[in-house]
């Protein structure tokens, strides 16, 4: 698993070919925007850093919170079938916070995992057999203990993804670098230790934070999204094994009118397991946005959830010779 010298990404060594409809990634992206989906419950200034996984045919969403003072926390929404129902979903605060969470089902061990930052070590994780219970998770365990240089934040915004052999931890540092650690998949859940590799470097505003990595259904490729900062606000750049498309989603192509920021969130996955598979035929991005007129302390900025939807064109099927072929 490594990166080409051109800066484009080869994320994993293998991928599963899926029979059925497949869609190529477009050469450019155009989205429709849902508008603001919901507001924080009383006592919270913002909802941020969304992670979303399929759960019993519904969407299960965890997020970061910030109160009206100086404290960060985390929460979960009760599961809902459609994002139009998000505003009526119950918002439950967590008694032990998991800031910038990453939620997935680790199929090899039949356990749900919630990874997060600021838990005592650089990154931590909790496990559960019932992820819909926001306060039913295990105690925090060590996920990663490494430190990085040239960063005012240290390691932030972890994400995980696995192939059939290894599981990988990607993270950022608000400093123009993306980092990766790995371990054999049989050793997970567990600690990645302190070692890591710097897999991408560039301007800090291009490689800022909120890194995500996904398996692309049916394409034998992997997609990385990285939050960037531009003149019109925050947006996402995308990287694959063979091409770089920028921006992936931002003010210029989102269709959003209520926010300039298209910020920390996740693509809606086709499965909830450790492969983090998304379907290019049905790309949707749950993101955080805020009023362009808002300003002040970062923790108090009024971030809210929004949903971008992109409709891809199915790839043409290969030609098949039926008769009279040489």
Layout of strands and helices, then pairs:
Layout: E1 2-3, E2 9-10, E3 32-33, E4 44-55, E5 58-67, E6 72-77, E7 91-93, E8 99-106, E9 111-117, E10 123-128, E11 141-144, E12 156-162, E13 166-172, E14 177-184, E15 197-201, E16 209-216, E17 221-230, E18 233-239, E19 244-249, H1 251-254, E20 263-267, E21 277-278, E22 283-289, E23 304-310
Parallel strand pairs: 16-21
Antiparallel strand pairs: 1-2, 3-23, 4-5, 5-6, 6-7, 8-9, 9-10, 10-11, 12-13, 13-14, 14-15, 16-17, 17-18, 18-19, 20-22, 22-23
Characterise this structure.
With about 325 residues, the protein is an all-beta fold. The protein is built from one helix and 23 strands. The protein has one helix spanning about 250-255, and strands spanning about 1-5, 10, 30-35, 45-55, 60-65, 70-75, 90-95, 100-105, 110-115, 125-130, 140-145, 155-160, 165-170, 175-185, 195-200, 210-215, 220-230, 235-240, 245-250, 265, 275-280, 285-290, 305-310. The chain has a five-stranded mixed β-sheet with strand order 19-18-17-16-21. Strand 1 (about 1-5) and strand 2 form a beta hairpin.
